[in-house]
Write a sequence for this structure.
């Protein structure tokens, strides 16, 4: 089982980003996804900064993948996407079909993130044929469904690696609207990067104070924090090859914890406020206790 | 510019046809389409009647098969595609690449439209769908500003359809799992958002009304306050020390003011949302929109929205409020 580190969902300051990845270089994580996937206005790091980080992590023995924007609206975003897809050094994770277009046209191998909506053997086979080597199932897919799909993939002889989003706020939705700016009563075009004030996202709760959503600019994440670390044996059994940890503040500790679990040095404990419902075929926000 | 109207039943389809629709879109009675609601949609016999009726009046019939086939259940989507093609529908509206691939190979003579659920917002994404599935049209998600729509229309490899009127999705369609996060069922995996089976209303002794979705309080209405369908993204939540519509107010999209610009940009079709609405809704909305398109075609420079159309549309809208949504940059 590979431990992988997904992209950084929240907008952190440049120094914090660099410090975070310097720490990551020392961690037992094998595959790291880098880049801004939420909002093109966030430019604490530019493409050459990300490429430098990629080189540093590669030198530290990590497989490095450049990840891309989840929602493309402006021409400038498309041009940046094209530049990333044509970087010539690192493989790329597509989070929109535009990226698949650029990558498959060049005959390059690529990864597909969880927003690519691959739900069945037909779409999975098609992407594999176009060059997809790694993929993340939609976060709403259950273990039972994934087991079925991976059995079909095996039967079809697909040579692909499957990563499950295993820890972090679940990426649920993307919009034209910036909800952080809206909450602060600021127009998106003069947002002043207010999302930078929320390094763990901006929580939204019900009027009874149940955590409902986590706002992150144009992205909406789950209000509860997903934790599937204790499911690693089940994942391994059904053919999952990687467990993805979101690059949030506590990711380093989580990676160590997962490493301990995989090595049998530690027992899994499901945090009180965590959710894991999707994996068990339930609503995503539910917490199914592990027996 | 074609007017594409919704129909969740044969009476709604007839209402659309009689009131000026150029095309009507329908879905089958299962989770192969994104309006999978109890009592709605067409079985094969009804779909045949729909086609015969539409065709006899020179109106096109489009069949939406725009959810994502779930593992182990491919046969339902295959059957839906085969049925739509055998029926002779003018196009299948699909989102899943597996469904598109199957339809393109098995039924090359049936036109394919990329559903809004396919989330294509750029020329590169559109080029992908055109190259691999030979799509003849794409429906744009409601996330682009008017300026971005115009720019995309200049460069698109395929004709474009945009949403004109109806309930407003705030999120990029096909990229929203809020509903399954709360209920287990989403547009992608089930064909419904905030499904009715998960909704519970609780009236309090003071006349206030609580609305819950799978137990979570999504909104609380004061006595006498108007309460619409409780779509979870249009509820009031606590955030940053305030209680407000954190994501969006209960409003509807109305782009009639933009018709001259959309027409000038070469947009091929405008879509009316609402297969779940009544035949009366379909009749009203088809009538005012077909009149507006005709007037705009005749005199785009002098086009204004008739106050009676405005009134009709306000009466049909969620919360009686309308917005330009993402077409207008300040909304974003």
């Amino acid at each position: 089982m590979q431990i992988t580190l997904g992209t950084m969902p929240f907008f952190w300051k440049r120094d914090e980003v660099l410090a975070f990845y310097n720490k990551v270089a020392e961690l037992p994580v094998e595959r790291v996804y880098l880049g801004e996937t939420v909002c093109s206005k966030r430019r604490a790091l530019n493409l050459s900064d990300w490429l430098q980080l990629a080189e540093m992590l590669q030198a530290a023995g990590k497989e490095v993948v450049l990840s891309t924007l989840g929602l493309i609206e402006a021409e400038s975003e498309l041009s940046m996407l094209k530049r990333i897809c044509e970087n010539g050094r690192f493989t790329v994770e597509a989070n929109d079909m535009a990226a698949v277009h650029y990558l498959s046209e060049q005959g390059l191998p690529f990864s597909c993130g969880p927003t690519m909506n691959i739900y069945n053997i037909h779409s999975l086979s098609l992407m594999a044929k176009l060059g997809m080597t790694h993929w993340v199932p939609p976060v709403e897919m259950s273990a039972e469904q994934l087991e079925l799909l991976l059995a079909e993939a095996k039967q079809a002889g697909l040579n692909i690696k499957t990563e499950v989003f295993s820890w972090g706020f679940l990426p649920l939705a993307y919009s034209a609207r910036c909800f952080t700016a809206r909450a602060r009563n600021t127009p998106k075009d003069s947002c002043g990067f207010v999302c930078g004030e929320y390094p763990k996202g901006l929580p939204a709760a019900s009027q009874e104070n149940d955590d409902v959503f986590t706002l992150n600019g144009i992205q909406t994440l789950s209000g509860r924090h997903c934790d599937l670390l204790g499911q690693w044996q089940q994942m391994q059994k059904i053919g999952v090859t990687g467990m993805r940890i979101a690059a949030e503040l506590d990711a380093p500790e989580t990676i160590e914890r997962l490493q301990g679990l995989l090595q049998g040095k530690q027992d899994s404990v499901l945090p009180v406020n965590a959710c894991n419902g999707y994996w068990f075929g339930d609503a995503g926000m539910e917490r199914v206790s592990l027996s | 510019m074609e007017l594409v109207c919704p129909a969740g039943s044969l009476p709604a389809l007839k209402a659309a046809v009689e009131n000026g629709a150029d095309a009507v879109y329908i879905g089958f009675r299962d989770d192969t389409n994104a309006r999978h609601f109890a009592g709605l949609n067409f079985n094969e016999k009804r779909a045949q009647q729909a086609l015969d009726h539409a065709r006899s009046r020179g109106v096109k019939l489009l069949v939406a098969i725009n959810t994502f086939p779930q593992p182990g259940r491919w046969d339902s989507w295959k059957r839906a595609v085969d049925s739509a093609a055998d029926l002779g529908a003018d196009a299948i509206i699909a989102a899943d690449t597996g469904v598109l691939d199957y339809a393109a190979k098995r039924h090359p003579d049936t036109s394919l439209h990329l559903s809004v659920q396919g989330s294509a917002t750029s020329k590169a994404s559109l080029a992908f769908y055109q190259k691999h599935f030979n799509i003849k049209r794409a429906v744009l998600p409601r996330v682009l500003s008017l300026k971005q729509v115009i720019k995309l229309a200049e460069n698109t490899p395929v004709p474009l359809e945009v949403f004109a009127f109806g309930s407003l999705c705030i999120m990029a369609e096909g990229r929203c799992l809020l509903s399954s996060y709360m209920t287990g069922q989403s547009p992608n995996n089930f064909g419904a958002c905030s499904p009715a089976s998960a909704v519970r209303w609780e009236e309090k002794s003071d006349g206030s009304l609580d609305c819950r979705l799978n137990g979570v309080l999504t909104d609380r209405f004061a006595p006498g306050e108007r309460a619409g369908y409780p779509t979870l993204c249009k509820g009031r939540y606590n955030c940053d020390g305030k209680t407000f519509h954190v994501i969006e107010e209960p409003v509807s999209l109305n782009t009639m003011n933009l018709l001259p610009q959309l027409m000038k940009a070469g947009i091929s079709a405008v879509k009316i949302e609402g297969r779940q609405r009544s035949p009366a809704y379909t009749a009203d909305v088809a009538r005012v929109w077909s009149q507006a398109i005709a007037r705009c075609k005749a005199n785009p420079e002098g086009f204004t929205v008739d106050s009676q159309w405005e009134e009709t549309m306000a009466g049909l809208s969620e919360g009686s409020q309308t917005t330009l949504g993402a077409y207008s940059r300040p909304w974003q």
Q: What stands out?
A: Residues 74 and 278 of chain A are 33 Å apart (CA to CA). The two ends of chain A are 22 Å apart (CA to CA). Chain A touches chain B through 74 residues (CB under 8 Å).
